[in-house]
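Narrative progress, year one. The postdoctoral researcher (J.K.) led the effort to move from monomer predictions toward full complexes, under supervision of the PI. The following entry was the first complex the group processed end to end, covering 492 residues in total.
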Amino acid sequence: MENLMYKSTRGSKNYLTSSEAIKRGLAEDGGLYMPTSIPKIDLDFIGSMVDAPYSERAFKVLSLYLTDYDSRTLHEICEKAYSAERFVGGAAPVYSLNEKTDVLELWHGPTCAFKDMALQIMPMLLSEALKMTGEKNDALILVATSGDTGKAALEGYRDVDKIRIMVFYPENGVSAMQKLQMASQEGNNVNVVAIKGNFDDAQTGVKEIFASKEIAHKLLEKNTFLSSANSINWGRLVPQVAYYFSAYCDMVKAKRIKLGDRISVVVPTGNFGNIFAAHLARAMGLPIKKLICASNKNSVLTDFIEKGVYDKNREFYTTISPSMDILVSSNVERLLSLIAGEEGTADYMTALKNEGKYVLSDEQKDAVKAGFGAGFTTEEETAETIKETFEKYGYLIDTHTAVAMKCAKEYIGSGNGEQVLVVSTASPYKFASSVIEALGKKCELEAVLAPEELEALSGKEIPLPLVKLHEKRIRFDKSIEKTEMADEVLKF
Ligand SMILES: *Cc1c(COP(=O)(O)O)cnc(C)c1O
């Protein structure tokens, strides 16, 4: 069988295997890697996974995309990445909330956020890719994070041979818990630095470092090349496709739906990676009707989907769902490449860079609207939804999941009959002080002790990785201007 090849969203004619695409991260023309065709599956493919464990489901889905990886090695990688030690209680369980709503819990990994689903496996995929491509130099992973990616990447990459990792986060754009998780990171190959700015500043800074030939050259003199762990990297995105198949299988198994029934999926969205993975699953043949993109007060994507206008020239809000505080959602570019072609994508990305805005044609807008719905919540609505969900169902959700839950409720309320899957992206304990306040209580203790307070309040246990976090030693407390990022990388 011939390998599935990968190419840039912006049209350079350089075709790569999946291992090469994972190693490079970003294409030379600034675009993101996409497969040249999307693998297709039928209902038998799904049916055959219904009784399989998560690692097996992931293996089957990943095999369709990572065709140059040795099958046995890929199988071992999947088993290791999604083992019971790493994901206590199962990798991606589905919880039945009420008659019409199921919840896909993606936060049972070591850092209690959904990024673990990809970042527990991606280091192994990269490590294998370095071997497969005969790479002599070491990889330096650069990450811009709005909180959860940073910790999940640090945890996934710590002490991995021939790879180092450096994380930048916006100083005032992450929760106390997230900051503490990162600042206390263990491992001999890690570095964490705060930026005086917001997430977009951090992300732009990292992108510029990636684009700089000068920096690449200087690093090569030290036998190092750059790679990324952000969802712009294909190795980060493709593992996420698997859990949509897994959730569907679990819903069939629990008789919430019949094999072949269409469901709709609501995804709390930031960089558009998670929801784009769902879009790929649907394009492969998973029966999904609508994908609903749920945003917080930074509702740039709601306007994009409803009006076909992407406009980042707007106020940036810091919200209680910080991992979704984004104005430039990188993975929209991948969707654009499917609906506007590569030339069109390159033009739109140029316009976004120069004017901060682009407008889809009517035809393209209709194509987006056919597959996607969109909604957003105010801060008050997010909080109310946490309270209501807990009081009505005894089910505790975090501030990101709440955004999706509210949009799901609206979607079901407007007469859509299919089963709805709400994607839950973080443990409520990761954003404990906001959750406590949403429940109408005052957070009495300092922020890092909030999980214990929430445990007492809700009667639900703190996940193990978050227990006693406040007693850990702080290793990283440096804060720099965004103009100093490149120097900091070279120093490391
Ligand atoms: C990263 C993150 C999101 C946003 O996911 P994207 O793939 O960037 O859209 C939502 N919720 C939480 C808790 C996250 O960590």
